[in-house]
Specification:
Elements lengths: L14 E5 L10 E8 L3 E7 L14 E6 L4 E5 L1 E2 L4 E7 L4 E8 L16 E7 L10 E4 L2 E5 L6 E3 L3 E5 L22 H12 L4 E5 L17 H4 L4 H15 L4 E5 L20 H14 L5 E4 L10 H13 L8 E2 L11 E3 L18 H9 L6 E3 L41 H4 L4 H13 L5 E5 L21 H14 L9 E2 L4 E2 L2 E6 L6 E14 L7 E7 L6 E7 L3 E16 L13
Parallel strand pairs: 1-3, 2-9, 13-20, 14-15, 15-16, 16-17, 18-19
Antiparallel strand pairs: 3-7, 4-5, 4-8, 6-7, 8-9, 10-11, 11-12, 21-23, 22-24, 23-24, 24-27, 25-26, 25-27
Helix pairs in contact: 4-5, 8-9
Length: about 600
């Protein structure tokens, strides 16, 4: 068995309580009363020098939290090395809570008196930091975020950013965070700043087999000894990444696994999916990450390579859903199942239940049709729509210098997309195409998206080449993405907004409006003026326009009344138009 060393908690936790119990002690301990704010995490630590299992990661002990209203939450303890066990709580409902620990052989636990019958009290108060929100959720087919409490939902724009070249390589590299998470934790700060600079508030991480051993990309890189326990340094860094973004108003989008072709999937573990080794890891993920509100998780990519992919991925999701204590949104790219809270789409057609057309989406209508196909859950295009991904460059004209093949037979030096597609497909993710895709996703009703870039060494269908024009986002595209983010940060997306076609003429544009006609958002492509229809709008409303190709800056066009109105922008660009005051009614605080 590998050595289980001490692990430092890198999370900025509100409370840390240590209680030291001698081996013979089985007396319950009262931890007393502690206070936290909504969405903050409390943690308790227990010393237990003797346990009834050979592998301490297999020991099952639980904490049950009870609210004064009768609501309960249950979470497992988790082992952190040496003789230490911990358990956590998230303040998800204001008021008085109490808890007790269970490790007496009941409810699936082991019989270990040192972890059993401890008690304590918690008071959860209002959150005073405006940027700190709760768990990702949804209302109908729109993403939502829990604000003041679990019942106070606010519409949420879900757009993910990936920087694989500098932080998230899918191969071993000197700057890959998961190759040396203890010494590269500072790169998480850099990654977040890079995410914000590119116009996003959600960054992407992929763990693969590093769950078991730092730097492990696939099954071939871990031993049976490695598989027997999670890598504590990796979990420390992942918690740091989740918390770092959450404290700044952001989120973390996690890919748990990779693809079958690269041997990056859990069905290759001894016992396969839901085998003992896989269950041990999932229990650990649920116990450590379940109370942290700033993340959601996808199974992996190219899931159609799996044997019986919908069964495997839904089993994974159901097992986690039953143990996390708090609800997190899970998904598996390409599959629609009750286990998943998000409808996640692949992007190359193929043998999936959920996919865009090949190299799609082909346009606004396809996006709208996908969102409308299921109004009970939100939707996410989880194919990576990286800058100029479909651009073809003749390799005789341009090359990206690089090294020899890696363990997957992949080399550097791909100029860009290796096959010459139609001119329409090639321009889908150029600067205009990328900017318009993210706006069309939102204007179709709130489709989630995935942008950013690959790394030099991935493969020819995930190209990255600064020399050939499919590398980092250019500064002008960064400005456009920041404009998109800042426009919607003004609470301009609402739950009762509907797509309303036919309200734009003499140009290409799209319209969202509230059902009471008090608020409209238009997006117009490549125009200097446009006619918009404000029919049924009550009274006179303020008009704001924003050049979607530049940094966010409002141009006040005064007030207008109902009917067809002409907006003169002054020059040709892509434009966003906001009509109305966009005041959200704040419901009373409830709870869950």
């Amino acid at each position: 068995m590998k050595s289980y060393g001490k692990s430092k908690l890198v999370l900025a936790l509100t409370t840390l309580i240590s209680i030291f119990l001698v081996q013979e002690s089985v007396f319950a301990v009262d931890f007393g009363s502690k206070t936290c704010k909504m969405w903050e995490v409390l943690e308790w630590e227990i010393t237990n020098s003797s346990y009834p299992v050979s592998n301490p990661f297999d020991l099952v002990a639980k904490a049950v939290f009870s609210h004064e209203s009768g609501r309960t939450r249950k979470i497992e303890m988790f082992y952190t090395g040496g003789d230490k066990w911990k358990f956590r709580f998230c303040g998800s409902r204001m008021g008085k809570w109490s808890f007790n620990t269970v490790c007496d052989g009941s409810d699936g636990t082991h019989d270990d008196g040192s972890l059993d019958s401890h008690v304590g009290q918690i008071t959860v108060n209002v959150q005073t930091e405006q940027d700190v929100k709760g768990f990702l959720s949804y209302k109908g087919n729109k993403f939502a975020i829990m604000d003041r409490d679990a019942t106070d939902l606010k519409p949420y724009v879900y757009q993910v950013y990936m920087n694989q070249q500098d932080y998230e390589q899918q191969y071993n590299h000197s700057s890959r965070i998961w190759d040396d998470p203890k010494n590269r934790k500072h790169l998480i700060d850099d990654y977040w700043n890079n995410t914000v600079d590119n116009g996003f508030n959600i960054y992407f991480v992929a763990i693969f087999y590093s769950w078991f051993k730092k730097g492990a990309l696939d099954r071939n890189m871990v031993s049976l000894t490695d598989i027997a326990s999670p890598d504590l340094d990796v979990f420390d860094a992942l918690e740091y990444a989740i918390t770092y973004a959450h404290q700044r108003g952001g989120r973390t989008h996690i890919w748990a696994w990779g693809d079958q072709g690269r041997k990056q999937t859990p069905n290759l573990l001894p016992g396969g999916v839901l085998g003992n080794d896989h269950k041990r890891l999932m229990r650990y993920i649920a116990a450590r990450l379940g109370p942290l509100s700033g993340w959601c998780m996808n199974f992996g990519f190219d899931t159609n390579e799996l044997p019986n992919p919908e069964l495997i991925t839904s089993q994974w999701a159901n097992y986690l859903n039953d143990r996390m204590g708090w609800n997190h949104m899970l998904c598996a790219r390409g599959w629609k199942n009750s286990a998943f809270a998000i409808n996640s789409y692949a992007g190359f057609s193929g043998n999936y239940e959920l996919t865009t057309t090949r190299n799609g989406p082909s346009g606004y209508e396809e996006i709208k049709d996908d969102i409308d196909s299921d109004k009970s859950k939100p939707h996410l295009y989880e194919e990576r729509h990286t800058y100029n991904r479909f651009k073809y460059v003749d390799p005789d004209v341009c090359q990206e210098p690089g090294d020899g093949p890696d363990q997957y037979g992949m080399s550097d030096g791909y100029p860009c997309w290796p096959v010459k597609l139609s001119s329409t497909e090639q321009t889908r993710l150029n600067e205009d195409g990328s900017r318009r895709l993210i706006w069309r996703e939102q204007m179709a009703g709130g489709m989630g998206g995935f942008f950013g870039h690959f790394s030099i060494r991935f493969n020819s269908y995930g190209p990255f080449s600064q020399n050939c024009g499919c590398g980092y986002n250019p500064d002008s595209l960064k400005r456009a993405f920041r404009c998109f983010r800042d426009f919607w940060a003004k609470d301009r997306f609402m739950f009762d907004m509907v797509v309303d076609t036919g309200r734009v003429r003499n140009g290409t544009g799209y319209c969202l409006r509230t059902k009471d006609y008090k608020n409209f958002v238009f997006f117009v492509e490549n125009e200097s003026r446009i006619d918009i229809n404000l029919k049924n709008m009550p009274g006179s409303q303020q008009i704001i326009v924003v050049d979607a190709r530049d940094e966010y800056s409002e141009i006040n066009k005064g007030s207008m009344s109902a009917g067809w109105r002409t907006i003169d922008f002054g020059y040709t660009s892509d434009w966003a138009i906001a009509v109305g005051d966009f005041v959200n009614e704040t419901p009373p605080v409830g709870g869950s």
